[in-house]
Sigma-54-dependent Fis family transcriptional regulator
Amino acid sequence: MNAAPRASVLVVDDEPDLRTLYELTLLREGHDVTSAADLAEARHSLASRHFDVLITDMRLPDGLGLELLREVQAGQRPERTIVITAYGSAENAVEALKSGAFDYLTKPVDLKQFRTAVVAALQSQHGAGHATEATAPARAGEQALARLVGTSQAMAQIRARIEKVATSMAPVLILGESGTGKELVARAVHECSHRASGPFVAVNCGAIPENLIEAEFFGARKGAYTGASADREGYFQAARGGTLFLDEIGDLPLAMQAKLLRVIQERRVRPLGGVQEEAVDVRLVSATHRDLATMVRQDGFRQDLFYRLNVIELRLPSLRERRDDLPLLVHALLRRVCDEYGQPAPAISAQAMAWLQSRELPGNVRELENLLQRALALCDGQTLAPEDFGDDSPDTVPDPLPPEPPATHPAPPQETPPPDAALPEPSAALPADLQAYLDDQERQMLVKALRETDYNRTAAAARLGLNLRQIRYRIQRLGIALPSDGADAFRD
């Protein structure tokens, strides 16, 4: 993390030795330090001037440091507040963060963490005043917020909330259905924060084998397990100075939940097979589509961990709750997908838009993007039509029936045959999985056509009555491997 500018700091602690230790540490960093032994002295100092950072112990002789924090918040003062709590006082730490504290430290205070917290608070406080340093992060934050497409009230509230919560170190829990854009929101929290220049490490908690999860999170020393031939970093080490995003936190095993809770409380990790602990310097953002409160009641998720993760909650609306945003989303997704394909974005007909509007879209934005990708692959012209969306789109209008010949004599009544009397007997047993069977047949035909045309996709498509975009889509969907002799052989 970059060095912080010289700043004014107010330290409030009733223990003279600790107060002196904090003062000396800050003076060595070049800061201007004022100290106070209780709430009364602190209030007197705050009444006479403004500070950049306020560091206060939670328990003071004449009250709680939390009172100072609330007074700073109520007066809309500029100080970033760091609260020092007793070891194991999880409730106090969470209460401080919910009341607007920038960060918290636990006793005994690690001086390295102390300095890091002050640097982070000052960078957050002064970022807007240092144009050279702040311009790039500010631009990154604006771009991240712009990726959250929509003009609905729900999306406006989400963007405003992100800008507000990004200025602290408080853990954020993002809730929402699958496909609502939880990782985009997590990235926006990171990009809008003072940590934007640091790493953003995203982890899918449900995709890690349980026997490797501790090493993946905390790192491992050489020889810690079979195959550990060298020291390796974990997610917490990789995200130092930045943001660690724990996606699908509800899928984390209970045993790992206990270890994660300890890391959050102590701000330290011990690599697998290691002896010494390492300080943790990450902003924690979590997300899930599951109902964690219900999981807590059913003993599927630790209540104390839920309490620590859910300091700031961001609940994302589903597409059903912001239907008015769908046209904007469609056009934004089309531009993004076509940019990736290197092709101009087509228009979308009013009928196709109406068809999309009529769908429930339980997969939300992710499902919408998949539908648009399929339509782009199947579209023959410059405008997306309902039939381009594949099997789920409305049937095309059938050709009109030929006129009936004029009646002559009434036909004699005939016995109606059974419905399947004219159907031929199937030549083979019915497949257990029809879609897999059809995919296999399609794959064989595509591979045959490609081989016979020396892997020229345009020629293979012509043989099968397809266009180039359609055959590309099918090759990708069916996972047909490219020839091993290079890209030149697999050409259009």
Remarks:
- Confidence is low (pLDDT under 50) at residues 128-134, 395-411, 484-490.
- Residues 434-452 form the longest helix (19 residues).
